[in-house]
Every structure is written in structure tokens, then in C-alpha cells.
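Dear colleague,

As promised, here are the two records you asked about, laid out in our usual form so they can be pasted straight into your sheet.

NAME FIELD: protein one
SEQUENCE, THEN STRUCTURE:
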Amino acid sequence: MSSKVNREEEYCDVVLPLPLPQLFTYKIPSTYIRNISVGVRVIVPFGQRKFVTGVVKKIHPNKPAAYQTKEILDILDIEPTMNSSQFKFMDWMAEYYLCTPGEVLQAALPSGFKLSSESMIQLNPAFKESDFDLTEKEKRVIHELRSKTLSYKDISKLIDSSGVQSIIKALIQKQAILLFEEVKEKYSPKIVTRIRLNETFISNESLSALLDQLEKKPKQQEIILRYLQQVPVIQDPQSNQLGIEKSALLNTNISASSLQTLLKSEIFISFEEIVSRLTFRPDEKKHNVSLSADQEAAKESILQQFHSKDIVLLHGVTGSGKTEIYIDLIKRSIDNGSQALLLLPEIALTTQIVNRLEEYFGDRMGVYHSKFSDNERVEVWKGLQEGRYDFIVGVRSAIFLPFTHLGLVIVDEEHEASYKQQDPAPRYNGRDSALVLARIHSAKTLLGSATPSVESRDAALKNKWGYVPLLKRYADVALPEIIFADMKTERKNKTVQQGFSLKLLTAIRETIANKKQVIIFQNRRGYAPMLECEDCGNIPMCNSCSVSLTYHQFSHELRCHYCGFARKVPNKCDSCSSNRLKTVGAGTERIEDELQLILPEARISRMDLDTTRRKNSFAELITAFSQGEIDILIGTQMVTKGLDFANVELVGVYDADRMLYFPDFRAIERTYQMIVQVSGRAGRKSGMGKVIIQTAQPDHPVFPFIQKNDYDNFFTREVYEREMYLYPPFTRMIHVSVLHLDKKEALKYGEQLAAKLRAKIGSKRVLGPQAPSIERLRNYYHIELFIKLERDIKGLQSIKNEIATIIGSEQNMHMGSKGRIIINIDPI
């Protein structure tokens, strides 16, 4: 990493958070020569009137010959925001996933590190007020502008009106004002106001005299006494330096006006303090984790295999206690002076596991995920740089943090598809990228799962990775009993009630009667997948996508789950005007409503995207369920992953069939993983767990593997079919999507692209073009191609670069602004 520049270097290459393939060179003004270094953020001009936050990647004396360089406008950092390991990692990601450095930077940097610009208004120096007939509001604005610049918000407050735009427009026409963009940092530290007692009064004598003086002012006297209760200035004079938060004192129901009087008379002194937005319990940390004999053996095997392997796969059944092994290994890494990273696939998981990890790591642990505000994410980034954190737990974006001496990376639930970023670029896999991150730092990686991905288990079997099985639950608790409810038979016998089999309903009633809890899994949110006219069969569709609109009863609207389009529920059919409209299918919202009608005494809640949009909604739901305030929790795949509830004894899978027949070569694998994972929520402490799977296909080949928890034979069958049809892990796949506003044009460009790719890399390696199951999304028609490359092909990156060149040429030369092409490496 380059430190401050010592010689008169004049230029620097800057990475901009824009989807552009190259870096841009800027001239370093002489005033900044001594202050600039690689990794600092800078403000640079880009285009006609745009300012962008970039990061300096290289400093050199070479002036570009191809274009006139612009100057850096400002340096935002004293110390670098990014380090050399991050640049190396970002370069790998841009190359491997065939995206631009700017797209990687956009994903890597928290929004709080990027600048925002705000339109500001100033008085035109040439303006003569006497030449114009101004309104009272315009005069008020001009009067304020004579002493300072104002924002739109300032003017809105000044004139107490929502019609700010019309006033500004009128003043512009009169050439009274000038508009300009003020560039500023988005990140702002959290500042709290604290108060302390004036040092004049911290002796017994002066304090007694003060209280006597305030005897006829009981409200002020009460404030002094309240402060002394919280801050014992006589016993501990140093405590007065820290004082107390003003808001905390006001929360004790004191008089705010009396407190203000004490501040004005300087009996109390007010001061500001910058504090962290992230709070953890630093006290009473647990020092050692207690492992069972099986856990201890697994841990020792992992450590032993780390001597010869950089990557180890821990295959631990649900409830086997993988988290305790993670904690022990993380503590070892930190004690050895290294940093550790624990990746989780879902924000929902962080809520519960953070509480457990906090007991061991306290304020040495940082948490990083998208539900945090921009400012909170910046504070974690800075905390890692400044050495306040040794250990980070987060979702996939945590791989971009500024680690300097990373020693251990753990990827929990490594099989999860949510580790894959879909849109926008970079379309990276967090698990695969974590392996590269660890390699850059010479760190070890542990992958953990009860249902490892086929690719990971294959790598372990081929001895590329280490492998440690942990096939018993903690304390020898039994795995749950798995039972199938044959929906064909139940419908024939007319025992199905609102989509629930008699078998599942009976088990729910028994479980609740025994004061135990139930989880119902249905991987579809909303009330019903569609609304249908009973007379003509018309189904309301999305205007921008070729999908039906999902009915949401709570908001009384039809909503597209792909583009977000929403409309009110129609009173009559759009096609034939019939008012005979019915809902078809069942989402989590409908299941919640109908189960509440069947079991009115039960306390039922729902966990899906619609109920967990707020920052703390996950934590609130999980806490309520953990504390027994909810009897039945209905959820999407959020409830399948790693959650640990001691009192859950029944899990119901509402509809297993819709997962089995999804048009994807991984559909069977995902069905197995999802059902085994959600089954693992049952009986984790008691060993009395039961799982009821509702299916019309109880004889499907995957179900015996699920029932017996027989991963090895499931893997053998699955990998046999993958090899036969040349799917991963035997090939590498690239998914190419051709998008165009015109359907025929999308197909034309798809065929042209396929022909060019076949000519370059061979016809057998290119599949398609074809329309996907959802042909139109957000107004764009999609045509897709799949490229299959041999796993051990020589010159892989060169071939990928050739593919990217062909695609780039096709897009730039032929498609224009109405189309684009998306490359997805290793689709999942």
C-alpha cells in the first residue's frame, strides 16, 4: 500500500462507482501532492456538471495522451478508506464475473461513503430589488439570502409553504437568485448532548449552598437531586466529567424549562459527544464455549485438516451444534492476533445468532448487513480499520470490508442460493468470493451446512477440500419424525380444510394443547398467487412483466413480485365485467388468515418479506416466538435457515410439490435442502419433533432421502444425473440474457449472438436461444442462452474474456439504447 506521496507525482488513476470498463486519470493539484495516497476517497468532476466520489488506485507521473485531464477537486480522507488487499479482491471479482471495476466499487463502498449533492440557492450579486415588484414571500427569501445561502428545505421553513418551487421559479425568472450544487458527505457521526455539573459545585460545601439557594425553586432543586442520583459527584468527582445524556435526564419527567434555566445560569454545562450507533454488551463475557465430545472431535478434525487444506467442509446435521464450533474457532483466531469473518445467508439469521455471539465477543464484534443504515455501515467499516473490531458477522456484502489480517472465514449454510447476488452487477456468489478473499489473506475457510451443495460435497470427495461429518444432534437429541400427508387421498376423502390436511390440522391442535409451538412453511408470500374470473377465466397480469399479479389482502391490492407494480383489487373482471372474481392458490398471508379461522384461540404470526421490511422487525418476531408469545409461525424460506427455537415440536410443509417442479436443474436439490432445513427446526431440545409434509406425490424419489435424512445417497443420485447431463460440478455455466423492449428484436439479437458464440467457442457449448419461463420483466423481453464449459478447460479466463468481447461488441454496435445483454457467471 502506498503511503503519502513524497515526490512530485502529478497524476492518479481513480476508480469511479460507475459501470465503465476503465479507470480515469486525474491531475493532482500541487496543494494536494503531500496529502494524497492510494486508497483515499476523492471528489472528481465527471461529465459536464457532475461530481463523483472515486477512490485513488494508483499515483504516477504519466500524463494521458488521449484526453485532457481534469483536476481532483478535493480529498475526503486523511487515512485511506481502502487497502491493497481490497483492490486485489475487487480486481479478481471484476475479472471473474466479467463486470467493471466501477460496478464492484459501487457494491463494495457503503452509500455513506459516497457524496450527495444538494441544490442550494444564493443571491445574484447583480440583482436590484428596486427594479421588481416582489411578493411578501419573495421579499422574505431575498432578505435571508443577503446573509447566507439557503436550501429548498430552508426556504420551505422560511415561508411556511409547500409551494417552494413556484417561488424559486419566479425568482429565477427575475434573475434574483443563482442555483448551485453543494457537495457533501452522506456519512455523519451520531452526536449526543450531555450535561455535567459546573465544577464549582462538586464539593460538599458548595453543593449544599447551591441546594439552599434553590430552596424556593423546587423544580430546579429536583433536577440537581436527580442528576446526583445518577452521577455521584461527591463520592467519584471524575464521574462528573462524563456527566449524563441530556435526553436521559429529561426522560425522568423533570421540567425541561427548569433544566434550560440551570444551563443558562451555568450551574449545568452542556457539551457534545460523538458516539457509536452500534451498541453491544461489553461486560460479563463468556470466556470458554462448552463442547460435547462429538463437537470437540469435529473441531480437532477441522484444525488438523487445516494443516494440509485451506478449505474444510463441516457437514453437521440440524441441531448438531455447529455454532458452538464456530465460536471456539473464532476465539482461537482472535487470540492468535487475526481477524475473523462469519458469513450468514440471511439477515433473519443475524438477529438470533448475534445475541449468542455477543455473549462471547461483546463489543469486539461488528455486525454488517443491509438493514443497517448508511451511517451504521460506515461505522462498522471504520471500526474494523481502527482496530475496534476483531470479528465481523454479516451477510454477503461483508466480504468487501477492509480486513488487514484476516485469519479465518466461516460460511454458514454454505448451500444457500441467497449468497448469490442477482442484480445489479457484480453478480457474485458470496460463498465462492469468500474463498478467494481468504486466499488473498492466506486465511483458512470453513464451510458449514446440514445439506451441503452438490458442488461443495463433490470438491470434498475429490480431496480438494477437507471434510468433517457431525451427524448427531447435540446431546444425542433425536432427529424429527417425518410423515407425509397424501393430499390426493385426503381430497378424495374430503378431509382437507382450507388447504390443510386432517393429519396436519390434528397435529397442530395436539401440539398447541401441549403448550408447544408450530412452524408452517410455504414458500410463497401474499394472500393468493392470482385472482381469476369464474366466468371467462381472465387473470389480471402485470403491465410490465409476463406474470400474474399476486393478491395481497392486507393492503387490498394486486402486486407484481418482480417489478413492484401494484393496483387496487378490481370490483369486476377487466375482460368481461363479471363480478365473480375468486382467489386461486395460497400464500403465507392467506394461510395465516384461514388458520386463524380454524383455530381462533391460537396466537399466529407471519414471517415473510411483507412483515419484515422494518429494520427491527426480524428481531421482534424472533424474540416474540422465542419467548412463547406466538403459538404458530407461518413463513417463507426465512423460517428454514438456522433458527433455533427450543419449544418447536411440529413443522408443517404446506405444499412441497410446487418446489419439485420448478424449471431448474437444481430444483430437486433445493427441495431436499429446504425441507430438511425447515424440518431441523422441530424438536431441537426435546427430541420429540415431528414434520408433516403435504404432497400429492408421496412416492416422489426425493422423499425417502428426506425421510431418512440420507444425504449421502441423495448426493449419489443427484451427482449421477448431473454428470449424465453435463451440469455443475462437471461443467462451468454462464447464463446470458438478451433484453429488448421489442420481442422480435430480442429473439433476433439472441440468435445473432448465439451464432457468433458458437463460431468462436464451439456449437456444443452454447444452448439456446430460448424464451425463459417468465418472458417479460419490467417491460423488457428476455431471451436466454446457456454456455457450458468443461470444468477443467484450459485458458478459462481467456475464453470468458472472448465471450465478453463478443457480447460487448454485439451490444455496442447493434442493440442501441432499447436493449442490453446481461452476463451471469455461475448462475444459481
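NAME FIELD: protein two
SEQUENCE, THEN STRUCTURE:
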Amino acid sequence: MIHKPELLAPAGNMASLIAAVENGADAVYLGVRDFSARAYAGNFTMEDFREALDYAHLRGVKVYVTLNTLIKDTEFEKAVNLMQLLDELGTDAIIVQDIGLLSLARRFVPELPVHASTQMTIHNTEGVRFLQDMGMSRVVLAREMSLDEIRTLRQDTGMEIEVFIHGALCICYSGQCLMSSMIGGRSGNRGHCAQPCRKRYSLMKGSMGLSTRGCFLLSPKDLNTSAILPELMKAGIASFKIEGRMKRPEYVAGVVRIYRHLIDRYSEDPEGYFVSDEENAQLAQLFNREFTTGYFKGNPAGSLMSRERPYNRGVPAGRVMGYDRKGRNLTLELTEILRTGDGIGFEGEEDSGTVVQAMYSGGKPVREAAKGAVVSMPFDIPLRAGTRIYRTLDSSLMKELQGSFETSGTYRKVSVRLKAEAFVGKPFSVTLQDEDGNTASAVSDYIIEAALKKATERENIQRQMEKLGNTVFEARLIDIDMGDDGLFIPIREMNEARNKAAAGLERLRTEGRRRKSHPAYTPLIEASAPPATGKPLLAVSFGTKEKLQQAISGGADILYYDPELSVTNIETGLEDIVAHAREAEVPVYLHTPLIVKDQGIRDLEHTMVAANEAGFEGVIAANMGVLRMALARGISTIADSSLNIFNRQAASFLSERGAEMLVLSPEMNFEQIKEVSSGIATECIVHGRLKVMESEHCLVAALTGPGALPAADTRGDVFSLRDERGFSFPVTTNIKGRTSVFNSKELCLLEDIPKLIDAGVSRLRVDVRMTGVEATGQLVKAYRDAIDSYYYKRQAGSRKCRDFGADFTRGHYHRGVL
């Protein structure tokens, strides 16, 4: 039997929700005004949400609410109260990113299903098992996983899997992008992404700019899996998710309608599956930056990207034949139908898109022009002959799609079985039963009498019972049980009983999903923890033996070794590193990669065991899977900042699970750090290039490899991305071909060390993996002096941030994020 997945649609507002429901969605996901990762979508007030929930539930459609942002400590009472209200109203599930909120959900709303957001960067089996241990019912996997990886993960865990099948893609692993945050304080992890991936960049090799096809170097194409849908269905994925809470309702209607047809088509006739030319054309017309199947079939390399146009491309519609400067008219030769009201854009002209207000053929105004026609239209911008035209909006298609949701109920009906009973001397009775087993009955006030004149026939009752048109119900079977001929029932009484039964069934389908109320949430008042009494340790992240020596000589208390060496690609043996560290009596931990797919997890486990046996103190876990694996083996584990530890609840939960140290999110400010650090072992990164993106896409190879302009040898070269303001973001590639992008400015908190010590931070980290060997010793020594001067009342070290370069930032420690 073919598994039919849930079709899950976006709903940025009520119109989009109706569009999704009426065009065949099985479930919708939406945000309320707080804690949604699409803060700029319309989102729902609670009053609107109640209406939306009833509308969907009445029609048999589930509603999932996104609470998929990181939560500040000051917001937890509000967040838990919201979860409880959503539970009471009958919400089908919530989608959560914050590990602290996840842990509270199981305590305060145990009956409410919780789905782990793609913002949690779950990409391996161990990570899924970590969430299963927490009681999660579904995980939205990272978009970078292949079908083979998904299939294996599902089989090994049995977890419900949700994947995106259509819409916009992020170049960065979701949950790991700090670029918008670091550039302008608008955090993607808080729902305020400014989409820096859709901006212009130049690829730099050292100080030299390289020529590239297009300048939108971080802009991926849009995902479209219609051609490979059968393979996704065979993989046993539970839910097919369409991206687009920021899109217009017509987009939602059109995309949902097509994928509804495709899923049903394959289910009914697997061998005859196809995607029609019309369906392909409509998907492209609704929105596209060109299409890709993403990572489902393996790494698409350069074909993933839409570097020339980061916005809606539309469909080719013709070319410019000429421009009349005097009359300010543009002459076009069409390859597609064009109508007044359509939107058009021009190749290479970003800001020249327009809506066709008037069009002329042979000097006469026309409202529509066919393929092959030559038309003119008023236009203020001269364009060269041969410029391609794209139709970016099809007004006729938009009007058709609007009809599917502006008059609700045209598509979505709920099948019911209706039974009517009519006997002389008894009330007229109507019972409705839906496919979920809900049953509602109603009887008339009228007592049926024997007919004095014209009797009510079976056909008369049948005709009145079929009249469910003003409801969502559709009678697939009508059973009439009546006594002898010769009874009489007024039409009004039949209609009233039918309508009462229908209203009762509506109440069951909406109110019947609601759950018991919760007592008001009151935050646990913890006993005040004593401030940290010991001097914070100075930790140094490094990648080469030369930097190890510099870190030790500079006064490091603890060392973090990164064998991945994405910058230098130099291999250094674990035993050699331990030998040098032991000689200086400095403990050393092993950095583990941010991304570890299942294919590499056992190799990493072997490396961790080898490091443990060689004398490493423990590991630094950068993802949930590695954290679970290390803790299960009894290895001392530091939970790294990529786990997005943003609040006290997250820190407490991971500490209770066995993490010995919690590295706080670099998106936190001093007040937040102080709140979390009271009585909990925390670490802050105080110096270094912060990673702002981690991508499965090998950016440099795609731009400089075979077929690129020009081809380049990347070995030993230093690459960066320069934005339109002249800031350069270093780019590195690891041995797996993954790209890391680092902040344009180096983080430096040298002058803020006293504040961090006062906040109770247990450990301060200097990251020198992107720093030169000579500067490493000086940096570590400067931070050593800053810490020691606080305790020994010495004059603070003379070194300041500006002594290590003019381009530095204090990150979010002073300002925080939206």
C-alpha cells in the first residue's frame, strides 16, 4: 500500500489559510504574534487564531503553530502561557526551536504534540534520538539531507519526519545563520532575518576580485520536488511541507492545489505518474528563482544557485524590439500571452519591473495579446533591443486562484452519512455521522401526523436532506427509515432538524478537539545561587601545533583542539597535541564538527574514543547528535554555542543531561548572560572571528572550478565575500566541501572582561583558529592580563582591542538582538 504523506501548507494570514484549506491541504502551519520565525508575516492575533482553528478543524485540517524562535528568560512566562492556551484551544501541534522551551513543553503541556523545528539543525540519527528522549513526536529535518539519508534515519528511529518540498531555500543550515544578526542586529533565530543571502557580493581571492556569473553569490534557487515526488513518497516521509508564510494567498492556493493533485495522482496510479506542462508552467509562474530539487538527489553543487536574479524570475514572455524615446514607448515581441494587469520584468534590469497598464497593437488599445504578437506599451526607461521579457505575474491566473478561497467551501467538503427517521406520532429525527466517528442528532418539535391531504413521500425527505449546501457537509449516503405511507412532515420542520444536526456536528468537530484548562503558569523561583568564587578559566580554540605553543606561552588555562583545520588543512596527531599540553600541565579538549552526517558519525565516534584514550579531557559538542553520543559514552562534554543556548532553561536542561559546560549564544547581551550564569557553569566566546554561516554548498569550488569564469586553483588561497559596503567576510572550505563564512569583523571583548567576570561566567574563550601564529600569543597574553588584573588589583593590561586591528566588534554583548 502506498503511504500518502500529509500535505502541510503555509498560512501567513487568514486569506492564505483559507486558500490552503480550500485547495487540499491536510494541515497548515502558522504563527501567532509572538515567537514566530517569520516575524514579518501577517501572523495571527489570538482572536484571529480561534477563528482560523475552527475553520480548519471543521474541515478536517490540522493546525500547527510555530513557536520556533529562541526565547529570552524574560519571555518564558508569556511563552508557557501561550503554549497552555494553544493546548486548551485544541491546537494539533506546536513547532519549537528553543531547547529550553522544548523541555518545558513536556512538563506543562504533556498532551500537546511538539515538533522540532528545522531551526534545530537536526541532520543525523543521534540528533533525532536526542529529541525522542525528550518526547518529541516529529522532527523537521535540515534541508541539506539526501533521500538516502532520510530513509535510513527514519528506518533507524521510527520518528515522524517532515521535509520541505517546495519554496525558498536558505544557503545556510537553518538555526546556524548569524549573518543578519551580526550585520544589523536582526536575528534569524528570533524571526527577524534581513535576508543578507539575497544581497550582492564579490568573491575575493586575497585582495583581487574574481569574475563570477552573477553577483548574488549566496542566493539559492527555489525548491521544486514535483518531478521526484514519487521518490519522496517511497521514502516514508510523514509530512510534505511547502514554504511560504510570507507569500500571497494566491501562491499558497496554486502550489497547494498542484501538489494535492500530484500526491493523489501517484497514490492512485504510481506507474502513470506525470507532471503536466500546465502544472510546471503554473509553479514557475507563481514564483521562482529558477528551480532545484535541492539536496534530495545528492549535492547539486553550482546548479543549486540563482546568482543572477535573487527575486521572482517569472516565465519568459518575449523580447524587446525597440524603444521610441520621443513617444516613450517600448515595442515587444511576445512568446507568451500578455494581458493588461500582468506584471513584467526585464533581464538585467533589477528595478524596471512594472504592471502592464496599457498595451497597443497596430496603434489600437488591446487588453490581451497572443503569442507571436508585436505590441507597444508606455514605458519610461529605455531598454536595448533583444532584452528578454519575463511575465512575473499572470493576472488571469491570480483571478482564478482568488476564486478558490474568496468564496469559501467551493472545494473542501466533509463527507457524512445522514439518517432520517419518520414515524407517525414521533418527532422527525436526523442523525449525521462524519468519517471520524463524530455523531450529532436532532429532532423536530413537531410530532409527525398522518397525512390529511398530500402525503410526504420518501423522495421529498431525500430532497430536503440533500440540501446541506450552506454547510461544509456533503451527504455521501442518505438512509431514510419511515413508517407506512400517509404521513406528513412540513418542509420547514425537516429543514430545521437537518440544520440542528449539522450545527451539532460542527460543534463536535471544533469544540470537541479542545483540551482541559491548565492552572496559570508561575515561574519556579530558584534560590539565589552564590556568585562564582573561582577565577574564570581562559580557554583557547586552536588548530595547529604552532598556535598551541603560543596559547600555552600566553597563559591559557585550557585548550580546545580543532583537527578539522578548515583554514590550514594541516593534520596534527592527537597524541602529539596531548604530549605538548601535558608538558605544560594544561588540559585539552577536542572540537567536533558542526555538521556530522550519519555516514561520518562512527568515524567521529572512533576519533572521540581515540582522543579520550590519548588523554584528552573531553569533547566540545556542536550538534545534538554528537552531544548525545558523547554523553552516552561517559565522555566529558562541553555544549557549544551552535546549540543556541540562549536562556537559563536551556542551560539548566543541558546541564542536567550531563553537559559540564554551556557555551552561551553570541546573540546574548550582558544582562542575559548574568541571568543564565548564576549557579550554572557557562562559557562565553570573547575573541575571534564568529562563524556566521555554515553551508553544505561548496561556494568557492562552484565559482572557481571547472566551467566557472575564470577557473582558479584554490589550494592555499584565502577567499572572502565582499558586500556592497566594502566589508569582507572570510570564507573557508573543509575537507567535506562545506563552506564556512565568518564575520567581517573580529569579536573583541578585551575591555569588557570585568563585566563578564561580574556576571559569573566560568570560562572565557579566545578563538585563534583564524588568527596568525604570532598574534596568537599576544592575544592570549592580553586576555590573561585582563583576567589577572581583575583579581590581583593590578593595573589593567595596556593592550586594547584597537591594538589588534581597527576592524573589531563587540558583537551583541552590549546591544542584544531583536
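A couple of things worth noting about protein two: Residues 249-268 form the longest helix (20 residues). The two ends are 48 Å apart (CA to CA).

Best,
R.
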